[in-house]
Write a structure and sequence with these properties.
The protein is built from twelve helices and 18 strands. The chain is of the alpha+beta class and 380 residues long. A hairpin with a 2-residue loop joins β4 and β5. α5 packs across α9. The longest helix is centred in the middle third of the chain and has 20 residues.
């Protein structure tokens, strides 16, 4: 059973963002596409081939009427912040043997393993994946993560041990990673690779057991990347994608339950624990919001990226909980523009910066965190 606590239900007559629909052109051609945005003259639709903007006049009369109704609806109120999400009870696991591999399916994930595992073992680590999926979906900023249509499940490749994981391209020192293929700004495919030991799975005699209390933070980070990228934010800047992943990693998780109460406190605790008792100095906002993916990757290779991740977490948490009314409305609007194809810098200027320049935003971030009890200083 899956339990989601603290999230409003959308009325039945309102189409959920990201829901596929059959659209008909004025000359009778049909396509399956997701409605991203629309105004009186233009509609943005996302198909398996990519994002397209076209004149509303090219759609059938029925679809034009649908868009008129859709635009006339009041903007959907953001859901309240969830207290927790839970994957409780007897989570259904389906097993299939494919060649020399074994595939296990939970509601939203496929786990491919070189070893045969009991359903009870798979069920325990699948709870982490499903809870992360539901946690991302529950963030009150409009996420609606969907597995790839062709397979219906997010893919995770399991490895018998760390040696096999590294031999297959796992990053040295990592306990799991998400890798993806893109075409421009468009996501094509992606999967998580993880050794079974990172999931707490160990061999005892001729069977495998699992430690349900295994630290799972790194995996929550990678799972968040997987479901968020497939949702459609592949064009977001590195600080944003890493910030969401770090934020989710800061949510306490235990045995199928992920908690979101007091997230500002959770993030502060996470950042300070990783600082190992040293004073945390945040990367300047001006640098953080403009850093390129290439520069971030170079720092990661050189082992100097820890401050970047913590800084992205602090900034993301500010936008989700401390900016404006504290409900994350600016992030929701920013994401909506990204999905509609707006350039990330333009979307950030409109919704995240608003009437502020970067130095003013930096001052606001420091002051709001100070009011929340966290003394924040910027690195020189």
């Amino acid at each position: 059973m899956l339990l989601l606590v603290g999230v409003l239900t959308v009325s039945a007559n309102a189409q959920s963002p990201g829901s596929p629909r059959t659209w008909t052109s004025s000359d009778g051609k049909k396509i399956e596409a997701i409605l991203i945005d629309a105004d009186a003259s233009t509609v943005a639709l996302k198909t398996a081939a990519g994002l397209f903007k076209l004149p509303v006049s090219r759609l059938s009369a029925e679809d034009q009427a649908y868009l008129t109704t859709w635009r006339g609806q009041a903007p959907q109120k953001l859901a309240p912040w969830p207290e927790k999400v839970e994957t409780t009870g007897d989570l259904k696991i389906e097993e299939k043997e494919i060649g020399e591999e074994f595939s296990y399916f939970s509601p939203h994930f496929e786990f491919r393993s070189p070893l045969r595992l009991s359903n009870s073992v798979v069920r325990e680590f699948a709870r982490l994946f499903e809870a992360t999926y539901e946690g991302v979906k529950a963030l009150p900023v409009g996420f609606d993560p969907m597995p790839p249509q062709e397979g219906g499940h997010f893919l995770t490749k399991l490895f018998a041990n760390r040696e096999a994981y590294f031999a297959a391209g796992g990053l040295p020192g990592s306990g799991g990673m998400f890798s993806s293929v893109s075409r421009g700004r468009e996501f094509v495919s992606g999967s998580i690779s993880v050794p079974l030991t990172s999931l707490g799975v160990e061999q005892v005699g001729n069977r495998y057991i699992i430690d349900p209390d295994k630290d799972s933070g790194t995996l929550v980070h990678e799972i968040t990347h997987q479901v968020a990228v497939m949702w459609g934010i592949y064009g977001a800047p590195i600080w944003f994608t890493e910030g969401i992943a770090e934020y989710m990693q800061s949510a306490p998780y235990s045995k199928g339950t992920m908690r979101f109460s007091n997230m500002t406190g959770n993030v502060e605790k996470t950042v300070m624990e990783r600082a190992n008792g040293n004073e945390f100095q945040m990367l300047p906002v001006e640098k953080l919001m403009t850093i390129s993916r290439e520069e971030w990757a170079n720092l990661l290779v050189n082992g100097d990226a820890a401050k970047n991740y913590h800084s992205a977490n602090v900034l993301m948490t500010y936008f989700l909980h401390l900016d404006g009314s504290g409900t994350g409305e600016a992030v929701a609007a920013y994401l909506r523009d990204l999905r509609a194809g707006t350039d990330s810098r333009q979307a950030a200027a409109t919704h995240l910066l608003r009437d502020r320049d970067l130095p003013k935003l930096a001052a606001d971030v420091r002051e709001k965190w100070r009011q929340n009890g966290f003394r924040l200083e910027y690195a020189p």
